[in-house]
Write a structure and sequence with these properties.
Largest sheet: 4 strands, antiparallel
Low-confidence stretches: none
Strand order of the largest sheet: 2-3-1-4
Number of helices: 10
Shape: globular
Structural class: alpha+beta
Number of strands: 4
Radius of gyration: 18 Å
Strand content: 5-15%
Bound molecules: adenosine-5'-diphosphate
Helix content: 40-55%
């Protein structure tokens, strides 16, 4: 039987810059107030190989990240330092390993209808400078492909969020053990999901 929409889950990681900028509460608030349910949370420090595994579940991630970066630079009328998507992607992965192992981070699992899409919308795009006002990456940080590229580092954008329900399940398995995910009912689930809300107010 197909899962109900309300069972969709997504992984969110507050990256080390989010923790050090004291934005943990602010970031969590944005996801929490949508009605999504927090079902797992922990603070951790991770290794470079842990990060490499996370980003290579999708064997095409390296090339796609390189392509996205090259296209963005070209769309701005600039010339990318590296024009080969595989090479550019490998550099991105290398800098990401150093960024994400630089300090503690917070891993969370959020559950609810359209969890992946809603969390991505609230998070914003990869590049803070072009992320919409109102999104976490648009509101709380200044960074761009140009600046991170010329400084030879990762884009600092505070948060990771899974990009599809399938990817989310793989990522959750990578970051959390079974007993660390909590199964419980939130009172507001009745209002959000019950077919008939007569009599519950
Ligand atoms: P997102 O996190 O928005 O889903 P990606 O999966 O493409 O984006 O990339 C993962 C992370 O790698 C980004 O959040 C960002 O921190 C970093 N990153 C991606 N592309 C670049 C780039 N061209 N230069 C520097 N850092 C990058």
């Amino acid at each position: 039987m197909n899962k109900h929409h309300k069972e969709e889950r997504t992984l969110v990681v507050i990256k080390p810059d989010g923790v050090q900028r004291a934005l943990v509460g602010e970031i969590m608030k944005r996801y929490e107030r949508t009605g999504l349910k927090l079902i797992g949370i922990k603070m951790m420090k991770v290794t470079e190989s842990f990060i490499e595994r996370h980003y290579t579940f999708d064997p095409d991630w390296i090339r796609k990240a390189g392509e996205k970066s090259i296209n963005n630079i070209k769309e701005k009328g600039l010339v990318p330092d590296i024009d080969d998507p595989d090479k550019a992607g490998k550099v991105i992965l290398q800098t990401l390993k150093s960024y994400l192992t630089s300090g503690p981070l917070i891993a969370m699992v959020w559950q609810g209808a359209h969890a992946v899409e809603i969390v991505r919308k609230i998070t914003g795009g990869t590049e803070p400078v072009s992320s919409p006002i109102g999104s976490i990456r648009g509101d709380y940080v200044v960074d761009s492909y140009e600046m991170s590229g010329s400084d030879g580092r990762s884009i600092r954008n505070l948060v990771h969020a899974s990009s599809s329900p399938q990817e989310a399940e793989q990522e959750i398995e990578h970051w959390f053990r079974d007993g660390e995910i909590v199964d419980y009912t939130h009172h507001q689930e009745k209002i959000l999901y019950d077919k008939d809300i007569q009599g519950i107010f």
